[in-house]
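User: I've been trying to design a sequence by hand for this structure and keep getting stuck. Would you show me what you'd pick, starting by listing the structure so we're on the same page?

Assistant: Good idea, let's start from the same input. This is the structure you sent:
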């Protein structure tokens, strides 16, 4: 007898990973179709503004950077949009759990694990997206009292600490991934889903964060120089 018999519906591992890969693409397609339909409506007035982190001069001045920066920013932006749709899955999973537990007295063995793994991966992969949009928490005891060029200079100076963290996270994540894959690591719960994809996405998230940091540093330096030339004129 299988250990999973008697638990009702148990999401197969392949379906879980496959759904996380396909579901955002479906949602993005539907969202774009809806946007095209809305654009054709003459009575529709879309909101054209964008919320910017005004305390970040690079975002405030919309510094685009070189081709490398634009490519990295495109990847960072779209990967952030992609994983943002994963949140819908967590809501649906827990709704399913509540219905099964309290209406049918058949609690699941996989919903909680599937959801916290999903949100953990989402957190790791969203770091670059948050950096691109200036959404990381900043200790602003001195920062907000500086002029805009001083803030850019402060960002350039403190980037060394960011890169130490990002590189350490990436190297550690790669070691975790290799060890997990080699031992065929799974969770200790009855569902027993593979852990190596989680560790792989941890490495991917740290890589995206590092690339986003390099892009931001390049744009910081370009903006710092441009501001200096503007002040000299």
């Amino acid at each position: 007898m299988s250990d999973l018999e008697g638990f009702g519906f148990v999401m197969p591992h392949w379906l879980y990973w496959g759904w996380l890969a396909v579901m955002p693409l479906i949602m993005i397609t539907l969202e774009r179709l809806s946007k095209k339909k809305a654009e054709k409506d003459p009575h529709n007035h879309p909101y054209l503004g964008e919320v910017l982190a005004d305390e970040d001069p690079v975002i405030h001045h919309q510094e685009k950077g070189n081709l490398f920066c634009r490519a990295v920013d495109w990847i960072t932006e779209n990967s952030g949009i992609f994983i943002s749709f994963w949140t819908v899955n967590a809501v649906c999973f827990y709704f399913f759990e509540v219905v099964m537990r309290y209406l049918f007295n058949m609690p699941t063995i996989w919903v909680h694990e599937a959801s916290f793994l999903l949100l953990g991966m989402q957190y790791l992969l969203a770091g670059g997206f948050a950096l691109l949009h200036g959404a990381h928490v900043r200790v602003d005891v001195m920062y907000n009292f500086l002029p805009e060029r001083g803030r850019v200079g402060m960002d350039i100076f403190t980037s060394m600490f960011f890169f130490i963290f990002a590189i350490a996270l990436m190297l550690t994540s790669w070691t975790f991934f290799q060890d997990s894959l080699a031992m065929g690591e799974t969770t200790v719960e009855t569902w027993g889903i593979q852990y190596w994809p989680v560790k792989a996405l941890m490495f991917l998230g740290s890589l995206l964060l590092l690339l986003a940091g390099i892009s931001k540093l390049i744009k910081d330096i370009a903006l710092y120089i441009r501001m200096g030339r503007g002040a000299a004129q």
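That's my pick for every position. To get oriented when you compare it with your attempt: DSSP finds eight helices and no strands in the chain. The two ends are 81 Å apart (CA to CA).
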